[in-house]
From TrEMBL:
Keywords: Signal. This is Desiccation-related protein PCC13-62. Residues 1-24 form the signal peptide. PANTHER family: DESICCATION-LIKE PROTEIN, DESICCATION-RELATED PROTEIN PCC13-62-LIKE.
Length: 312
């Protein structure tokens, strides 16, 4: 009975949140939404943090092995906290492993084709289920039992989809500022891969749109709407994430409500800056207040600049 009751509250809050953008219990500061000025080195340094996050999450959740188990000496730093092998169906597990392995290749390519060298410093990652559950706290929703991202395929896909999406959004934004033909080509190639990876995971979610997310009664489609709203609120720079079903006004050419791949008015990918991404992954709405999956912040000069200038 407790689960049914909580699920009903969950759905009511979802509907209310979609229509009114409820205020969170997190204080959201004034946001900087203009592109972040950074050098090519600083951009790739920052990107490595996201590649490490994706690689560790995907590899540890699919086969229980991390980056240095596959490519020794590529990174160095503290072991992730709370990584767990997820209860995935074989099709999803195989793709998650494949995409995780590809992320390791991307990290190596950055070392081979830029001035950055291995081993890359690895930020502390907190991959415990309760950390991912905190995203629901942004809209004051308490689920019983607490959301467990590792419990089943439908739950895990919500974590997996953003690991690729943030990389796609970051590269889409920084490619014009990358100096050097080889470096710009590398950024474009990674962006293409991450866009494809994101598309695969969104397709997996779309295939399950009308299925529930156990043990709750909310459907996958409903939860994509919810997580999109949470990301947009924390990111603070408008709509850059959308659910699987949208109003015609948000659909491609305003002619469809199907929305497997979110995009802007011209069906071009949304861009997010490093500041926006950190606001979301820190689950604080503030790029200088670490938390979430990066409890100690991230590595690199760009993040240290954010801290020094108090850019949030």
């Amino acid at each position: 009975m407790a689960t049914r009751s909580c699920s009903c509250v969950f759905l009511l809050v979802l509907v209310a949140f979609q229509s009114t953008m409820m205020k969170a219990n997190i204080i959201i500061p004034s946001f900087q939404c203009r592109p972040v000025l950074a050098s090519t080195r600083e951009n790739f340094e920052f990107a490595v943090n996201l590649h490490i996050y994706k690689a560790q999450l995907f590899m540890l959740s699919s086969i229980g092995r991390g980056i240095n188990d596959i490519s020794p000496g590529l990174v160095e730093g503290p072991a992730p906290i709370g990584a767990t092998i997820a209860n995935l169906d074989n099709r999803t597990r195989n793709f998650v492993e494949e995409s995780g392995l590809a992320s390791i290749g991307h990290i190596r390519a950055i070392a081979d084709m830029t001035v950055l060298k291995t081993p890359f410093p690895m930020p502390q990652l907190d991959l415990r289920a309760q950390v991912f559950a905190k995203f629901f706290d942004v809209i004051n929703v308490t689920l019983k039992p607490p959301f467990n991202v590792y419990a089943n395929t439908n739950s895990f896909l919500f974590a997996a989809v953003y690991a690729s999406y943030f990389l796609e959004q970051l590269y889409a934004g920084i490619i014009p500022s990358i100096i050097g033909n080889r470096e710009r080509e590398l950024a474009a190639e990674i962006a293409l891969y991450e866009g494809a990876s994101y598309g695969v995971i969104r397709s997996l979610l779309n295939d399950r749109a009308n299925l529930t997310v156990p043990p709750y009664t909310a459907t996958v489609g409903n939860v994509t709407n919810l997580t999109a709203q949470v990301g947009n609120q924390l990111g603070g720079c408008g709509v850059k994430d959308e659910g699987l079903i949208v109003p015609l006004s948000l659909g491609a050419e305003n002619r469809t409500t199907t929305n497997v791949i979110p995009a802007d008015d011209n069906s071009l990918p949304y861009k997010r800056s490093a500041l926006e991404i950190l606001r979301i992954l820190f689950i604080s709405g503030n790029a200088t207040r670490p938390g979430g999956v990066f409890p100690r912040g991230v590595e690199g000069t760009l993040y240290q600049l954010f801290l020094a200038l108090k850019q949030s």
